[in-house]
Structure formats: C-alpha cells, structure tokens
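Mods, move this if it's the wrong board.
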Amino acid sequence: MVLPFLFNILLSLVDGIIFSAAFPDLSLYILAPITLAVLYFILKKSSIWKSAIYGFCFGLGFFLVSLSFINYALNPLGTALVSIMESLFFASFGACWSISKRFFIVRKNPFINAIAFAALYTAFEQLRGILPLGGFPWGSVAYSQSASPIGKLSYFIGQSGVVIVIVFFSVYLYRLFSFIITLRPIKTISCAVLLVIIYFSGNIFYAFDNLQNENDQNKNSFTFAAVQGNIKYHPSGDTSEADTLAFENHITETEKMLETAEYKSKQAQIQAVFWPESSIEFDPLNSANQKDLSRLYKLVDRVGKPFIIGGPTFKSENGVKKKFNSVFVIAPEKGIVGQYDKQHILPFGEFIPARDFFAFLDKQHTDLITDIYPGKNDNVIKLDNANIGVRICFEVADSQLIDKSVKNSANIFFFPSNDSNFGPSSESAQQLQIAQFRSIENKRSTIELSTNGISATIDPLGEIANKTSLYTNAHFIAALPLNNTIPPHLEIEPWIVGVCYILSGGLFILGTIFSFAKKKK
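Not the wrong board. Structure tokens:
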C-alpha cells in the first residue's frame, strides 16, 4: 500500500507542474483539461486524508512553478509560503470531494458525478479568490483558456462558468481514455462527440452573437498613444533608484514619440496619452517637487491631449497619513481632472499583514513595503466617446471588480501595471493572458500597459497587437473599437457561483450523512 501512495504523491506533484504549462510562458491550454483529468483519476478511489494530500501536492506543484515570479520580488521562502497557503485550497477540495462522492447519486450517476466534481472545484477556486485578506485570484483554470474555443464561453457564463465547463470536460476526457482502453466503441464514440461539442461550443455561440449584434458593436473607436518608459530590475528588491528613473524614462520616451513620423501623421486623431502604473514617483496633488510636476504639466500642454498616468497619492485621514496607488487624468491647461485609487490591495506586495510577525521572517522585505490603502472612488474615466474602466495591475484578476467596471458603463479597459520587481519571469505574460481573457469575457478592447513590458492592445475578440518586450523602452499608437453591449454573464454568473456553493455544500453534507449511516449498518 505504501508504494501506490508514494507513487500517487509523485504523480500529483508532477501533474500540478504540467498543469502550470497551460499558463505562460508555454500557454499550452490543452494541458489544462488533460492534467485535471489525471487529478480526477488520482482522487477517484482515494480516502479523505489521501485525497487531501494528493490535492495539496497537485496545488504545490502548480503554484511553485506558476508563482515562481515571486522569487524576484521576495525570495524563495516567500514563494514557498504563498504556494503552500494556496495549495491548502486544493487539499480541502480533495478532502471534500472524497466525502461528497460517497453520496450514492454522485457515486452511481456519471453525469451528476462530473457536475459535482466541477461545481466543487469551482467553489474552491472562488473561495481562493476571496480568502484570506481579499484572496489571491491568480491561476484560475479559466485564464488558461483565453486562446482556446472554450474561453469564448466566458462572454455568456463568465469566468466561473468556464471553470465548470473545463473541469466537466476533463472528467469526460478521463472517461474517453477509459472507454478506449477497455474497448467500448459505442461509449467511446458518444463520449468523443460530447467532448467535440463542448470544445467548439464557444466558437459557435460567440459567432452567432456577433451576427446578432453586429449593428450594435464597434461603431466607434478610440485612438491613443501608450508609453512604456521602462524601469530596470533591481535584484536587491530596493526599487528607490528605479522609482526615480521611472518619471525620467517616461518623459524621454514620450518626447521621442513626439518626433516620430507616425505620431505627426496621427496627432490630430490621438485622444489621449497613457502612462503605466508607478510611472511617476511623486504625488501630483501634494508634491513638493514642483520642478518635476512643472515638467509634466508642460509636456501635457505641449501635446494638447489628456494624459492618464499612474502614481502615488498621500492623504491624511483621522490623523493618519495613508498612501494610495492611483491613476490620474491630467488635462491640458487644467491639471488633474480625474483620479482612481486601486481598490484590491495585494497582501505582501502592497501591504504587510501582521507586520511584526513577518518582519521577524523577512525584515529586509517588510521594511521596503509602505502599506497602501484601498481606494473607494469610481474607476470609470469618461474621455470623449470612451468610458475607460481602469483596474491597476493584479486587479485584472478580480472578476468582481471587472464586472463592476462594465456595470459602470466602461466600453474599454485600461490595465496599467508595474512589473519591474518580477525580473525576467512569466508574471507579465500571465497578466497579459488574464487581460486577454477579460477582453473576450466582456467583448471590450483593452490597453495593457506596463512600466517595463509586456504591454499590448487587445481587441474585443481577444486578438493581441502592439506587443512589446520585457525591459525595453517602447511606445505605440493605436485605435481600438468601443463596445457598449452588455455581456450576458453579468446576469448569469452570480447564479452559477451560487449554485456551485449550494450544490457543493449540500453534497458534502449528504456525503457525510450517507457515510455515517453506512458505517452504522
């Protein structure tokens, strides 16, 4: 019994590592359903505690690889701690599945079995996105499908719906292999047909919706310039020098852009200029650095178009000086006319919970982090015909905030980020993958703009253009379509999530009761 147990531990760990290849840098999205099919096989006949261990090992293999970019911002200990914490959700999922499948309907009915497995996985992924400390909604299996046909279903059923579909697909993928091995041709064919229908359903529904709404979509466009000034990576984690250079580099790259033939030919059409998160290191509302502030305002006046720029804000509330991560709208001759403060603050990246405890583990890192506070103001910037939904950096992974943007009439997204702390890792590419998913999910164009790359534009169908490289100075001028249609998932997805919670909780309770009743007999 020991050897199969150890083998399954190793298999779970390797399976999780392979699962990470569905995400950048490799982005082999077909590996997501295959690896989840293997996880289903591993958990199929495992006891509660073994299922918890296998689930934990799967999660650990996945997160240690996919979150390895944390090594650059913190250290290997930081990556290990975050990976372990996130893997506990997979351990809980494994244990709960072992109990839920004991209920006789789940055990005997293949369709209900697949639905239950998918619903439970989705429920725990939702919990991982909100707990603890606001959650860490990174690494959703839905994001891996941003370039696949299944990903297009997100417009209709949202991120959670795509998770259910891909996990349900995985269960029947396992059964297809099982039918092939056991030489059952009729079941093999019927299962294969079902998988093909599921796989291409996104393309079919998406194309049909485009035909139905082609007169309502993309009538208007928004023309803009975007600047990636670049910040060097500092292995020590001390970004003070990088912060100082950020403003200078963005000024230089913008002035360089103004001299190009492309800019001069499109100058009249350009409606705004975008700079990324942390492109200035001073608070333009309260800055004592009048020299740099004057340079910025003169540049805005020279261009004659609004600038949308990321930087810090410091406010005093009840005698406490608070720092906010903000995006400003600076208009020619007027100064600041709009502002958004980041609402989903990242633990350990933007604030340190239980600071005294974690300072004991890594004082060098905790001393470098000044706590940022969550903002409460509106995130939609109205500019000419564009309602720009702004979400800063990791907020792109928060589906509730993205939904709120669309409900607030956003017809184009702007996702500024500062990825300079993550070195030559896959973090920026993962963020671009999530931004691509958001574009498809809401049929909204996206401006993904990083201080140091990867920056790009994404159209409402998920096509990526103007893609820049890491740690380079760059700029681009583009026109993106504006879309005001309301995606169906805004109404449907909350019901999907609710059903997943209720179904998962109900089956867990019934599985527990059935298990105790069986023991008494």
